[in-house]
Amino acid sequence: MFALVATPPLGNKSLVTLSVPLAAAGADKLLLCEADEFGGPPDDAVAGRALDAAVARIPPVLVLFPAGGTGAVLGPPLAARLGAPFAPWSDFVVSDADGKSLRGRGRVQVLRLRPDGRTRRRLDPAQIERPIIATVGAGRCPPATGSERNLEIDVLPLAPPRTNRPIARVVTRTPSPHEALPQAAVLVLVADGDPAAAAITAAWAERTTGGERGETLSPASPSPLAPLAPVAGYGPPPPVAVASADRTPRSVLAACCPEIVIRVDSCTATTARSPRTLVIRATSSDPGGQGPPPEDVDVVWWFGSAAELVDLALHLGARA
Amino acid sequence: MTAPAETSGATKVAVLLHAASVIRGPQPLHPTDLHVIRLWRQLGAEIVVLELLGASGVTPRAITDAIEAGVDRAVRVVAEPLGVADAHGTGLVVERYLRTVAPDVVAFGVDADPDGLADVPGVVATRLGAAYVPGVVEIARRASDEQTPPAGAEAAPAHAFEVVADRAGVTARLALPARAVVGFEGESLVRGARELPPEVTPRGPGAPHAIRIMTLYDLGLEPTLIRRGDDLRGTIEAASRPLVTTRSAESLATLLR
User: Fold this and answer.
1) For residue B90, what are the contacts with CB-CB under 8 A and spacing of at least 6?
2) What fold is seen in the domain A181-318?
3) How far apart are CA A207 and CA A199, in angstroms?
4) Is pLDDT above 80 for A172?
5) Are A136 and A65 in contact (CB under 8 A)?
6) A73 neighbourhood in chain B, CB within 8 Å
7) Domains of chain B, earliest start first
8) Does the domain spanning A2-155 belong to CATH 3.40.50.620?
9) Domain boundaries of chain A, sorted by first residue
10) pTM summary value
11) Closest partner residue to B169 among A76, A87, A179, by Cβ?
12) What's the pLDDT tens digit per position in B142-197?
């Protein structure tokens, strides 16, 4: 497994800071592309050089883009250049079978949930005989499996910039107020009008910031729900986020593919889903009197209190 | 036949219906496609819509709705080989057509692909050598062009526009280059242009029978260039998702371990 990083030139200290989590996550080699132009937001006209250098050096079976938004920008053009399929929000199945029983099938196969939620697509790299470009959802961090000592760093030479390639020039850039949401493995969505929303806000503030009680979901005041700060003590990326579905743009939610979505009471907002994504409908009243849940719901949970819901979300987010 | 466009000298925009995915049966116009058409009409652009069909005899539902939304030209490429084409073959067909139109901007709705992929526009951008700019939530004329709009035209070249898009935790304002394939979100908005009335007057073909039908031969393409044994989207299988109801946080935590 090779990790690719395109970055402005790094000093030794920054390189160590970068490589430690990659090594712990189990990367065998870090392919490093350094250029001043890589400091900006992802754009294929710029970062595409690094991707092309990496796939030329190590012809891949799978190219995976992590949650956070780079895959939607860089994935389709890379797939176009490689003649490869692009599979957004994918998961994998890994077979333990021996070589004979695989019978020409790949040990690793890619799964993607179709929009209807009832069917999925299965892509086998061994059968299509070309790489697969996939984006993956946000997941809970597994236990460390690697060691920093085992990580080899390979600095890739970059081809000169492509001439006459049109570039969408960055005029201004500001941190997105919803930055935390696409990287959250557990996403709690509430509707502003629900009585439970305010209680969840208060419980969330108490657990994560040390007791900013009494926050309300008034649209006139900055909400503690959208966006939400990372959970202190769990480390980046934030594993849990809570958001007001009414005030989070639909496009932001569509770019989120968490492992667990908890929709509270009347909230019907949807996110992107991978086959692994579980949608929990958390209801503060008897679900028996509410009719059947929407088709995308996997679990109906009748929770006792807002504190219980927030505690469970934090518990799930912390669990590897 | 194609009715003549009423706009002249304006930005020429090609809108790829259903994000250029191939349709095999009647589909309604996706709300985001409708939104993209209205958005560019607000900006005074000349709008061409393109729909791809993998079977003949499909009712022109989406494209008729697009005409009613005010496009200038409506084109359907009908070819059975498209029904078994991958994104690269489909992108080749779109590119061939776009080279005859020479649009300033190619636009699509990022969520308009019924299969949720929207993989063809990336191929189109690569083949055209254009910038690929998905996820746009806002578009506006650049400040310099607001002050000096071109005479006799309501709109301007592609590089006269700026867009706002989320880029991996950053909200970026980007200056569109001269050639761009731009993906719009369903909630995208226009800054600095007058609102359109809810009911707009069709200004293009005016009648569904004026939709132009094209084949691969019209585009100079052999079917063997497009037809594939595998569309590279994977085999379809059922996804088992049994519903679980619980009242216990402990059991839920165990279930989700």
Assistant:
1) B20, B21, B22, B52, B82, B120, B123, B226
2) Rossmann fold (3.40.50)
3) 12
4) yes
5) yes
6) 132, 134-135, 167-168
7) 12-255 (3.40.50.620)
8) yes
9) 2-155, 181-318
10) 0.89
11) A179
12) 876 544 444 444 556 666 899 999 998 899 999 999 889 999 999 999 988 777 76
